[in-house]
Specification:
The complex is a heterodimer. Chain A is flat, with a radius of gyration of 28 Å. Chain A is an all-alpha fold. Chain A has 10 helices and no strands. Chain A has 2 domains: about 30 residues; about 220 residues, MetI-like (MetI-like fold), CATH 1.10.3720. The C terminus of chain A is likely disordered. In chain A, helix 3 packs across helix 10 and helix 9 packs antiparallel against helix 10. Chain B is an alpha/beta fold. In chain B, a hairpin with a 2-residue loop joins strand 1 and strand 2. Chain B is globular. Classes of the chains: A mainly alpha, B alpha/beta. At the A-B interface, helix 7 and helix 8 of A face helix 2, strand 6 and helix 3 of B.
Chain lengths: ~300, ~260
């Protein structure tokens, strides 16, 4: 496709009177036509390779000897329709748990992150507490925290704490674990703001707290918005784990439905609904990141 | 509202006899690197003192020490008769009376130009928004940028950003301005607009301590030029003497290099 330069059209640079009169040059029109051709070719190639791959995958799965039974136990349309109302009702609980937990997680995570950035000897115990908290709850598997809270706290028989609905313990476990993650995300954001910004703020007479509140945090939060939303996608999905405590959420409702006939289709229904929930949030994350100009390596001319 | 009384900085007692800024035997090191070594310097009210010297000679650190952005190792800095190196001093109050402008502007990218300038009057001095904005707009007018009040810093040219930074420092009515190589990040065409602004400030009687590589500017506006070399204040004198006929061979060598580079 490469063309030799055309010495026949040197087009002596004339002083253009107005940009409005600009007409693409012959060379530019050739470039555009070439790029359009390449775009069509790319689209056709992508479509073909996707179709071939899908055909091979579907062929491989459906031609396997056990496929009829798998089809019956996992992808039964009637069973899916039957279980859908119960699973969807359970999902409403997941959504509520996720929304309430997300709010508490943001507040708690931000507080922990700020505690870790405090200076001065008075704050040593607070700094140490925040560091120990994040170390512990980032390290503990969520399922252990769920079991410890869900079965341990009620067993304490403590008035006020021990006799709550099970979903409260599930939510508390999610909050404990995710606030540790989110605290680290916020801390990374705070530390990514260049020290010269703090210096500029302090040089204007702002106190340490004012510099944090009006200069450092606004920039930090903007920067960590995409990873933060990523953690919320994860929280949304992990809200399904509270089912192990016996809360009737989407997963538990599916499990109950499978217990009658050992048909696992309701799990697929629950999975499908979870994906439908997380995809919009994932797209929102991408959109926020793009709006901030973070195209990453895939953007730009190169 | 606590520091409201400190806002009218000129109301603070400035001893008529002593210098506004007095630096005595200042010493500062970073780990094993001695950056300032026994530096003593006086700046009288209304004076313009220019610091010259190679990169790493300690010019920036000296300015940062005066603004208490660095903790000194030894020595005394007195501002308007108050020992600001005393650890019991309210550093925020001192800083709010001393303006500093950085080489890299350090504007707050998430705030508009106007909000950059109003932040300190509102949060440090407790001015109501309307009053703070009025002052800020007057100051932006002063630096010729009142039409850019709503813009974000990254929509401005380097010279415009630096003028906003100067307005942000001036809005607190500082008794002393510290300028740290404020034109080093600008291309030659934009240097002029910032330097002419500084010249006007000098004519209005602002006390300034300026670190710069612009020798022509130093010769025009400085009352005193100081040559720093390896953290030591090697030579101090009026610009016509120090820049034309320096006593120290090291100063002569430095100026010869500058002339070679075509900056004098």
């Amino acid at each position: 496709m490469a063309r030799a330069p055309q010495p026949s059209t040197p087009a002596a640079p004339s002083v253009s009177s107005a940009g409005a009169n600009w007409q693409p040059s012959q060379l530019q029109r050739q470039r555009l036509a070439y790029r359009r051709g390449r775009t069509v070719r790319s689209a056709v190639t992508a479509a073909l390779s996707t179709l071939v791959l899908l055909a091979v995958l579907i062929g491989a799965v459906t031609s396997s000897p056990g496929w009829p039974r798998v089809h019956e136990t996992f992808f039964n349309w009637d069973k899916a329709k039957d279980s859908f109302p119960a699973v969807a009702a359970g999902l409403w609980l997941n959504i509520r748990v996720m929304l309430i937990c997300a709010v508490i997680v943001v507040v708690l995570g931000l507080a922990l992150a700020i505690l870790r950035t405090l200076r001065g000897p008075v704050f040593f115990p607070l700094r140490m507490f925040a560091a120990a908290y994040t170390d512990l709850f980032r390290g503990l598997p969520l399922i252990l925290v769920l079991l410890l809270l869900g079965f341990g706290v009620p067993a304490l028989s403590l008035g006020g704490v021990s006799f709550q609905p099970v979903v409260v313990y599930g939510g508390a476990a999610l909050v404990l674990t995710y606030s540790a993650y989110v605290a680290e995300v916020f801390r990374a954001g705070i530390e990514s703001v260049h020290p010269s910004q703090r210096a500029a703020a302090r040089s204007l007479g702002l106190s340490n707290a004012q510099a944090l509140r009006y200069v450092v945090l606004p920039q930090a939060v903007r920067r960590v918005l995409p990873p933060l939303l990523n953690d919320f996608v994860s929280l949304q999905k992990d809200s399904g784990l509270i089912s192990i405590l016996g809360v009737i959420d989407a997963i538990r409702a599916a499990q109950i439905s499978t217990a009658s006939d050992f048909n696992y289709t309701p799990y697929i229904v629950a999975g499908f609904l979870f994906v439908c929930l997380t995809i919009p949030l994932t797209r929102l994350t991408d959109w926020v990141a793009r709006r901030q100009g973070w195209y990453g390596v895939s953007g730009g001319a190169v | 509202m606590r520091r409201r009384s400190g806002f009218e900085a000129t109301a603070d007692p400035v001893p008529a006899d002593g210098p506004l800024l007095s630096i005595r035997h200042l010493r500062k090191s970073f780990d094993t690197n001695l950056v300032l070594d026994d530096v003593s310097l006086d700046v009288d009210s209304g004076d313009c003192v220019v610091l010259i010297g190679a990169s790493g000679s300690g010019k920036s650190t000296l300015l940062r020490c005066v603004n208490l952005l660095e903790v000194v190792d030894d020595g005394v800095i007195t501002l308007a008769g108050v020992d600001v190196t005393d650890p019991r001093v309210d550093a925020d109050r001192v800083r709010s009376r001393v303006g500093i402008v950085f080489q890299a502007f350090n504007l707050f990218p998430h705030l508009s130009v106007l909000a950059n300038v109003t932040l300190s009057p509102m949060k440090v001095h407790g001015l109501p928004r309307a009053e703070a904005e009025e002052r800020a707009l007057a100051m932006l007018e002063r630096v010729g940028l009142s039409d850019k009040a709503a813009a974000k810093p990254d929509e401005l040219s380097g010279g415009q950003q630096q003028r906003v930074a100067i307005a942000r420092a001036l809005v607190n009515s500082p008794v002393l301005m510290l300028l740290d190589e404020v034109t080093s990040a600008l291309d030659p065409e934009l240097v002029g607009e910032v330097l002419s602004l500084l010249r006007e400030l000098k004519d209005e009687g602002m006390t300034m301590l300026i670190a710069t590589h612009e020798m022509g500017f130093a010769r025009q506006v400085a009352d005193t030029v100081c040559f720093l070399d390896g953290g030591r204040l090697l030579e101090v004198g009026p610009p016509e003497q120090l820049l034309a006929d320096p006593r120290e061979p090291r100063t002569r060598q430095f100026l010869a290099r500058i002339i070679e580079a075509g900056r004098l």
